[in-house]
Amino acid sequence: MATTKLRDQVRSSFTQPSSGRNCWHSPHSSPSVRVQRFILSPQEPESLPSHSSQVIMSRKVVRTSKFRHVFGQAVKADQCYDDIRISQMTWDSNFCSVNPKFVAMIVDASGGGAFIVLPLSKTGRIDMSLPTVCGHTGPVLDIEFCPHNDNIIASGSEDCSVMIWEIPDGGLVSPLKDPVVKLDGHSKRVGILSWHPTAHNVLMSAGCDNVIILWNVARGEAVLRIDSVHTDLIYSACWNRNGSQILTSCKDKKLRLLDPRKGSVIDEKDKPHEGSRPVRAIFVSDGKILTTGFSRMSERQVALWDPKNFGEPLTLQELDTSSGVLLPFFDPDTGIVYLCGKGDSSIRYFEVTDEAPYVHYLSMYSSKESQKGMGYMPKRGLEVNKCEIARFYKLHERKCEPIVMTVPRKSDLFQEDLYPDTIGPEPSVEADDWFSGKNGEPILISLKDGFVATTKNKEFKVIKSLMATTSSSSSNRQSDYVDVQALQNEVKELREMVDELTKRVSELENK
C-alpha cells in the first residue's frame, strides 16, 4: 500500500509527457531548471528510491556574475532638468552628451541650430531664457564632449560644418555664437562626431556625403579624408580602445574595419543583419565587435563578432519587434553593454564574456515615458560610494532624467571588483605624433578616492588643449592655430613676386 501511494504521488507531480526517460522540462519554468523524474513500473517496485530522494529536483548551476542584480532607478523629480525643448529632429544620434562637469542637450531653435550646456548641479526647472550655444545656421545633429578637457565640446550640423566650443566653468551667462574654431570640409550635413580616445585634439566626423574626416583640432585643419570607401550613408563610426582602428556601419549593408591613417579597409562583413534598417556597431572586450540591427522580418537583433573570423557571428539574439534603432553603450571595466532604443521606454543590459553564448542577458530598466535620446556618463563621473556603475541621462519631450545603475552591496567600503582602474582624462599621445603613426594606450586612473565634478583641476590632472581660454573674439582665438610655416612660405612667395615686379618695372623704364 505504501509503495502504491508513493507511486501515485510521484506520478501526479508530473502531468506532462516526458520526451525522454529521465528528465522533464516544464514549459513554465526557465530553461535552466531541469527536473529529474523516475519512471516507475509494477515490475520494478524494489527500485524505488529512498524517502530523502523520492523526487530529485536538480537546478542547473546559474551562471555566477556580480552584475546579476544590477538595477536601474530614476532620480527624484527635483534632480531632473525640466522644461527643456528637446530637438524634434529624427536623426539617430544620442542628442545628449555628458561629463563630470556638464550635461549638453540639442534643443529646438528658430533660425538655425542650438544646444544647451548645463552644469550638473543646475537641476529643476530650466528658464526659457537660458543662454544657448547657437552658432550653427542649420539644426545641430550631434554633440560630443572632449574626453581630455571637460570644457570643450564639438557639434556637427546640417550646415555642413563642425564647430568646437569652450564652455566656461560655471556655464554660459550669455548666448555663445562664436566657436573656438570652425571646421569646414564636408559637402553635406554632418551627423556623427567622435573624439579620439587617447590622442589629444583628434576628432573624427562623418557626413551624409559618405566621407569621414580626421581633424587636428588644435590646428583647425583636416589631416585625413576617407572618401572612397563608403558608397552610401554612414550609420555609425567609432574608435577601438587605443584609437588605432575605426569601425563603421553603412547603408550599403556592410560593416567595415578601417585603418584610419591609411584610409584602407582592414576587413569587412557583408550583411551583419539581414534587415534594411540601420545597423549600429561598437568595439567591446578583446577587440570583438557588437552590432545591433534588424532581421528580415524587422525583429531587432544583437550580435557579437570576432574580427579574426567574420564568417559567422559568435552569437545572434533576437530581442523584439520594435522599430527604434538600438543605441549601444559599452563599459569596458565591467563588460556590460547597455542597449537603449530610440522611442523605447526601456534600457536592456547584457554582460559580454568569453563563455558561450558570450552575450548574457542581465535585466531591463523600464519606465512609462519613451526616450528621445540618451547621454552616458564617463566612469570617473560616477558616485563610487553608492556602488553606481553607470548613469544615463534620458531625454523626454520636455525634460532630461538621470537614471542610475547600481550593484546592490551592503558595505560602504570601496568595491575594488566593481571599479578597476578606468580611463582618465589625460591623453597619452599628441595629435601630430598620432597622425605620424604613434599609438598610445589609455592612461588609467584609480577611483578609490572617488571623483566629484567640483574637483579642481590641480587635484585632477587635465591636459588643456591649445585652444585659447580668454574671452577674445573668434578671429583672435583662431589665430593661435595658424600654421607658422605656412605663413613664412606665403611671405617668401610675396617677396619673390615683389622682386620680379620691381625687375620688370626697371626693364620697362630702361626702354
Automatic annotation (TrEMBL):
SMART domains documented for this protein: DUF1899 (SM01166), DUF1900 (SM01167), WD40 (SM00320)
Superkingdom, natural source: Eukaryota
Residue stretches of each WD repeat: 133-175, 183-225
Coiled coil segments of this chain: 484-511
InterPro entries named among the record's database cross-references: Coronin, DUF1899, WD40/YVTN_repeat-like_dom_sf, WD40_repeat_CS, WD40_repeat_dom_sf, WD40_rpt
Region (Disordered): 1-29
GO biological process, one term: actin filament organization
Pfam families: DUF1899, WD40, WD40_4
Name this polypeptide is given: Coronin
Biological source species: Onychostoma macrolepis
